[in-house]
Amino acid sequence: MTEFCIERFISLLQTAPEKRPLLEPPKYSAYLQEHVFDSLTERGYFDLSALDWDAVQLCQLVTADYADRYKHMDRSWLQRINVFLRQTDAASQTGRCFF
Amino acid sequence: MCDYEYEESVLLVLRLLKFLHQQNSAHAKAICDLYANADIDGLYEAIDEVMLSIFPGAFYEFDDEWESSIAVLSHPDITRFCHLSRKWTQRQGYYSSAWQGKLQDIAGYFACGVFKMNISFTGDQAVLRLWLSSDYYDPLSFGNSMVDMLLYIRQENQRLEEHLGDALYARQQNREEAA
User: Fold this and answer.
1) Least packed by Cβ within 10 Å: which of B67, B107, B156, B157?
2) CB contact under 8 A, A48 and B37
3) pLDDT digits (tens, 9 = 90+) for B101-159
4) Which residue of chain B comes nearest to A22, CA vs CA?
5) Closest Cα of chain A to B120: distance in Å?
6) Which helix (H) or strand (E) holds B51?
7) Is A63 part of the contact surface with chain B (CB cutoff 8 Å)?
8) pTM to 2 decimals?
9) What is the domain partition of chain A in residue ranges?
10) Which CATH number is B56-178's, of 3.90.320, 1.25.40, 3.30.310, 3.30.1360?
11) Phi and psi of B37, rounded to 5°?
């Protein structure tokens, strides 16, 4: 098994890629308002086959709070890592920890 | 954004269709023609077909033990991720399957309404088996979480391609200098 190298570990941490946003910020679309929502309100349906897909972007097809579902995931994963670290037996390590 | 009661459902179905349009506009058009003049219920009916078009070769199984449906999915972007990750690992001069664990983490992070997951690898092909929760599974949330996963994997593929391009360029430079 490859031996753990602290220098290599630190250098890899320093070269870790920049964190990119998971999703683009949501945007309002006047096109969707006119061709989808106004039509749904007036007639109860809209013509899916007549939609111009190039006129809308993915970021216009989410609600304002859509990305919040992943904040919950971030919190859960961090909590899980914390639990895992608390369960780690310090005595199994070669060096002394804290005391 | 528009404050309609059905806003989220409509937007998320259209999001799946937009993603499919980017991937295969002919398939997206066929579904749109089939569900033309759709109301809210009609849009919901289209979700399964859109998902099966986004993930070519996808199918569902039933697990008798867990009494749960299993979605079995693979995608060219996931295959590309496996290929690039393997190539990147080999270029580092060692063999490691850590990238397989990374794919499991990515799928585990995004998959919504899933209580169990298994990924099998054959060469560069990865097949995701996702056990759908009878309590929490919602096709719309699940579909969009899979789209988010694919968008993230595309970002990762782009990053890996940039790295592999850099590494190739650096090796060419070294060879030229040595010559």
Assistant:
1) B67
2) yes
3) 999 999 999 999 999 999 999 988 999 999 999 888 999 999 999 999 999 999 999 98
4) B152
5) 23
6) helix B40-54
7) yes
8) 0.83
9) 23-86
10) 3.30.1360
11) 55, 45
Q: Are A61 and B11 in contact (CB under 8 A)?
A: yes
Residues in chain A: 99
Q: Write the ipTM.
A: 0.83
The two tokens of residue B128 are 């995701």
Listed by start position, the domains of chain B span 1-54, 56-178
Number of CB atoms found within 10 A of residue B130's CB: 26
Which of residues 22 through 41 in chain A touch B, CB cutoff 8 A? 22-23, 26, 28-29, 32-33, 36-37, 40-41
- Say what the pLDDT of residue A99 is: 47
Give the residue among B8, B4, B17 at the shortest CA–CA distance from B47.
Answer: B17
Taking CB atoms within 8 Å and a gap of at least 24, the contacts of B38-42 are B38/A45, B38/A46, B38/A48, B39/A40, B39/A44, B39/A45, B40/A40, B40/B6, B40/B9, B40/B10, B42/A45
